[in-house]
Amino acid sequence: MNKYICAVLLFIFGACAAQAVTAHKPGHAAIASAHKLATAAGFEVLGEGGNAFDAAVAVAAALSVVEPQSSGIGGGGFFLLHRASDNKDVMLDARETAPAAVKESQYLKADGTPNRDTSLYGPLAAGIPGEPAGMVWLAEHYGKLPLAKSLAPAIRIAQQGFQPDARFLEAIADHREQLGRYPGSRALLLPNGEVPKAGWTFRNPDLAALLERLAAKGNDGFYRGKTAALMLKAVQAQGGDWTAADLVGYRAKERDPITIHYHDWRIVTAAPPSSGGVALAEIFNVLSGYNLTEADGVHRLHYIIEAMRRAFRDHNEYLGDPDFVKMPLATLMSPQYAAGLRAGILADKATPSSMLPSAVAQDPGMHTTHFSIIDADGNMVAATQTVNTHFGSCLVPPGTGMFLNNEMDDFALVPGAPNAYGLLGNKANAPAPGKRMLSSMSPSFVFGPDRVGVVGSPGGSTIITQVFEGILAFMDGKSAAQIVAQPRYHEQYLPDVVYAEPDAFDTATAKALEAMGYTIKQRHAWGFMNVVTWDLRDNKLDAASDPRGISGSGEVK
Ligand code: GLY
Description:
CATH superfamily: Gamma-glutamyltranspeptidase, small (S) subunit
CATH topology: Glutamine Phosphoribosylpyrophosphate, subunit 1, domain 1
Bound molecules: glycine
CATH architecture: 4-Layer Sandwich
Shape: globular
Radius of gyration: 22 Å
């Protein structure tokens, strides 16, 4: 295909970027994750002849051992995959599901107000885990190695132990009371009833044995047999109502990702039950009507913040599990809809959120985890996985070494009442048996004419704005290290404030934004972004892990 035709097609479809990728192979690999042991696990599996998808299993499993406060076997996630051989982009949805016995009344106090303790801690907080089914699917449908080989590094780390970093130990201290409620959790993380000190070696032989059962039997090694029995016993003993049918019935699902065309870039990102891709599409579509390169710094931020505000309004209103709700996705992501949103943005004035038809107070934390991989053949994985807030439900079924998630809190359990991230929801995200709860996780690929990026981050509702800002920085030509380090800002419709990290805006910019009507609130740093990039011009890979994390590592080998 000649260059002119390619340029025209690029403009119309953003298609040639993918063509360019097909023609190349990096010849080496890049992995960025939240823990150096997880990154090393990925490279170990690549060294044994595995591809990016095998490495993703290895990294995901290792993170479940070394960063259990953020994600794990008892949780779920979204794996965005790019297979180089046929340019296939697909989202593997391993999100948790509600058990059949779910009832909204379980999450209400006697006076009818939300019972946040029930939705965040203990058996009722936990959805049926999707992570194991996701790993099995990856290995069976995309990997080159048997599951057992890809799980081997995680099993070894769980058996031999490692020294948790300060972030891990702080998370234990923060959740000491909730961890102390459950015998399995106490035994695992509160040796002698105390929060462990720096230098403690954390061994988890029960989790190693659980991973061995998964390695030997695939889905049956988790959703049936010993692991299933241990989970059911603990959940039921603590007052939960999971059944064997809930576990056996769980399925990971392949979904078409959301594709966004923005100038000559093609962004491939998470589809519902993530709200992230739809929100990113709205933001980029609104911004495509402005010239961000020529706008002064204050107006560039004004347009971006107003686009974020409008995308988050729709997030709360329309989105849920695509297997249960009909969503107006084509409308929400159409250029005409974006033009309508843009028309309501005043040149020099913030739009009060109260002028738009309902949601947020939030804690931009480091919950959840993201990793990014490109292998020597150009296969790519962007994976964001989670147990929701730190240590999920804080419930470890004795004998499993695994925390069950508290993802039920991501449903709109009580219409109109905010979840852990301050996000409100309505019927589209109401709980129902077997339904997946809405997520903000937004693993993303960015394909340009001569560069490709793999981007994602944890951080609850801030994931969407972090990923947006990361993609924009990538488009602006920043290195992986610059992308993950840049200061962040976040607007999510309600509360009507712009959250900003300390260095996000200089004094003059902050003053100019305030003069337009924005309320800026400084927050402690948030997110833990892990990015890999590929420059097709010189076939160079780049990888970086967020300096906000402690043990993260981005490496090229
Ligand atoms: N549990 C956070 C999310 O999925 O967005």
